[in-house]
From TrEMBL:
The keyword Nucleotidyltransferase appears for this protein: no
Single GO molecular function: calcium ion binding
InterPro entries hit by this protein: Cadherin-like_dom (IPR002126), Cadherin-like_sf (IPR015919), Cadherin_C (IPR032455), Cadherin_CS (IPR020894), Cadherin_N (IPR013164), Protocadherin/Cadherin-CA (IPR050174)
Subcellular location: Cell membrane
Organism the protein comes from: Climacteris rufus
One Pfam family named in its UniProt record: Cadherin_C_2
Ranges for domain Cadherin: 1-52, 53-161, 162-269, 320-426, 431-543
Any Gene Ontology CC annotation: plasma membrane
Spans through the membrane: 551-574
Protein name: PCDGK protein
């Protein structure tokens, strides 16, 4: 007796919108035979979405529609019934429209758009809204439709000119059709409401309409008739712009046309009176006739006597500067312009045409610099080197084209500024030598051992060298001066210190970028040079062909030093011998030559420096002499006897002087 569902039941297919939806049936029962009737009610579920007739709706609404206007929208359909049917609508947020949902007699819902804020097509031409339909299911089902609203233009804007007054000038002999001015107006409306037609204002005189023509579409004002400055000098033309709306908007503007005079009138000469005949004895300045001359033209066109002054080349070119200082970085790119020499000439035509010439200082200038003859641009043809030459001086001649030509010279100095393109160069110790500086054992801290000598070919800050100890056999034993390269002992030498030390000194300049080099210094701890030589011989490579060269060089230095010492000793002995000879000479001649009592002081001075040793002065001073006598003698000879005889017997001019004076004062350098 169980009642079963035989196939899927669709309430909307069976009953549509009818509610409630029920199916009736009869059941026959046998033994005993009985007939029963029954009814099955089909209950609705929310299995259908609301549906709009189309996915997009389009409305056209005039911008002149007042607020409060209502616009019905197409309704959505939902085959479900009861609470599952369409219940409400929603509208996307916007500033102009609101949504009003209404209910029909049968209970169905429909929506209307309500205009809350008036539309302005010039502000927004179209709007896009979204309308949403919702049923009452849980969760609710929905449908969407796009509403596109076109704002229809209304003629609510009048044309506007971009300026209220236009000004133009035209010559009086201008041919017909010449453009005088172009007026322009715009209208924010659309379609015919925004189409503009230009025309003369109603109060424009007929004479103006005869002389000027206006294009109604483009707003071009052109000459139509013959203008005459002598008749009218200024025309004031009023124009208007209208749109093509049902009630057209109008705008007005004014065009001021100034007529420019041309020399189209000949002078008129009027003879007022003539005095004739003139007596032959009439004095100079006697009035013969009275004339009057008139010309209808204006300004210069009315002066009929015109004298033109021709130009003479009486002005030399004038440079904006008498001299130029140009600074160029070294290692520059060849062919770059470095200076523009500017000059002017107040003359006219050929007399004012200037040409620029580089007066070369020497033959190399032509390979380094060139100048554009027409505009005075100075070019650098090659790359300069600050270390090669720092400054170049030249003269630029500016000459006009007159006959004869006049010229002006301009001094140009080109300074080559330094770049840090040279690393420091070590002068001492030489990189290829194996000589070692010597320091004695037990030397205290602060003792200067040797010095690193270096130069930098750059200039200024780029040539400042700093010295840093980069590597050492014993870093605690030696230190180097940061700015002078002096190598000092950092502590006292101990017995357990190594006998040989190798220092690597890093030399850096202060340029940008920093360039550097290194120097290797060898220091031996030994009492004598002999020990150092022995050590150097021990450490020299067996196969080095130059291993004996260092020894011989040191030996040569020792021999030269010994020879110098012996020479100096000999000179001292010789000087003492000369002094004794001079004293004996004085004792033998004091009574006859000088007649002055008292002992002599004999001074024999030899100039230092590069003066030869045999050029010297002999000075003799007495204790109580009241005057000085200047005596001259011949140059000194190698024979002491010859020197003595030359001093006593000869007073000839020479390179040596004998001075006799008081002992109370010494002669001044002038004396």
């Amino acid at each position: 007796g169980a009642l079963l569902v035989n196939e899927r039941i669709d309430r909307e297919e069976l009953c549509g919108a009818l509610s409630p939806c029920s199916l009736s049936f009869e059941i026959v029962v046998e033994n005993p035979l009985e007939l029963y009737s029954g009814t099955v009610e089909i209950q609705d579920i929310n299995d259908n979405d609301p549906v709009f007739p189309s996915s997009q709706a389009r409305l056209e609404i005039s911008e002149s529609v007042a607020a409060g206007a209502r616009f019905p929208l197409e309704s959505a359909q939902d085959p479900d019934v009861g609470i599952n049917s369409l219940q409400t609508y929603q509208l996307s947020a916007n500033p102009n429209f609101a949504l009003d949902v209404q209910t029909r007699v049968d209970g169905s819902k429909y929506a209307e758009l309500v205009l809350e804020k008036e539309l302005d097509r010039e502000e927004q031409r179209e709007l896009n809204l979204v309308l949403t339909a919702l049923d009452g299911g849980s969760p609710p089902r929905s449908a969407h439709v796009q509403i596109h609203i076109d704002v229809v233009d209304a003629n609510d804007n009048a044309p506007v000119f971009n300026q209220s007054t236009y000004k133009a000038s035209v010559r009086e002999n201008t041919p017909s059709g010449t453009l005088v001015a172009r007026i322009s107006a715009y209208d924010l409306d659309d379609g015919p409401n925004g189409d503009i037609v230009y025309s003369f204002s109603s109060h424009t005189p007929a004479k103006v309409r005869e002389l000027f023509a206006l294009d109604s579409a483009t707003g071009e004002l052109r000459v139509k008739g013959q203008l005459d400055y002598e008749e009218t000098k200024l025309y004031e033309i009023y124009l208007q712009a209208k749109d093509k709306g049902a009630v057209p908007g109008v705008a007005h503007c004014k065009v001021l046309v100034e007529v420019v005079d041309v020399n189209d009138n000949a002078p008129e000469v009027t003879v007022t009176s003539v005095y004739s005949p003139v007596p032959e004895d009439a004095a100079p300045g006697t009035v013969v006739a009275l004339l009057s001359v008139t010309d209808l033209d204006s300004h210069d066109n009315g002066q009929h006597i015109l004298v033109q002054v021709s130009d003479v080349n009486d002005n030399a070119p004038k440079a904006s500067q008498d001299s130029y200082d140009v600074y160029v970085l070294e290692n520059n790119t060849p062919g770059i312009p470095i200076l523009n020499v500017s000059a002017t000439d107040p003359d006219l035509g050929r007399n004012a045409h200037l040409s620029y010439t580089l007066l070369q200082g020497d033959s190399t200038f032509g390979h380094l610099f060139s100048i554009n003859r027409e505009n005075g641009t100075l070019y650098l043809l090659t790359s300069l080197d600050h270390e090669d030459q720092v400054e170049f001086s030249m003269v630029v001649q500016v000459q006009d084209g007159g006959i004869p030509p006049l010229a002006t010279n301009v001094s140009v100095s080109v300074f080559v500024t330094d770049l840090n393109d040279n690393a420091p160069t070590v002068l001492y110790p030489h990189p290829n030598t194996t000589y070692a500086d010597v320091v004695a054992p037990g030397t205290p801290a602060g003792h200067m051992v040797t010095k690193v000598v270096a130069v930098d070919a750059d200039a200024g800050y780029n040539a400042w060298i700093s010295y840093t100890l980069l590597q050492a056999t014993d870093p605690s034993l030696f230190s180097v001066g940061l700015h002078n390269g002096d190598i000092f002992t950092a502590r006292q030498l101990r017995e357990d210190d190594a006998p040989q030390h190798t220092l690597v000194i890093l030399l850096k300049d202060h340029g940008e970028p920093v360039l550097s080099t290194s120097a290797t210094v060898s220091i031996s701890v030994a009492e004598t040079v002999k020990e150092v030589l022995t050590d150097l011989t021990d450490v020299a490579p067996a196969n080095d062909p130059r291993r004996h060269v260092t020894f011989y060089l040191i030996l040569a230095v020792i021999l030269v030093s010994a020879a110098f010492f012996i020479t100096m000793l000999s000179v001292g002995i010789f000087k003492c011998y000369k002094w004794r000879q001079s004293k004996e000479l004085y004792n033998s001649s004091r009574s006859t030559t000088y007649r002055t009592p008292g002992p002599f002081h004999h001074i024999d001075a030899v100039r230092g420096g590069f003066t030869p040793p045999n050029f010297y002065h002999q000075v003799y001073l007495t204790t109580d002499s009241r005057q000085s006598d200047l005596l001259c003698k011949k140059p000194f000879t190698s024979s002491p006897l010859g020197s003595r005889q030359g001093t006593i017997r000869n007073g000839e001019p020479g390179l040596y002087h004998q001075i006799v004076g008081t002992a109370s004062r010494l002669p001044t350098p002038a004396e």
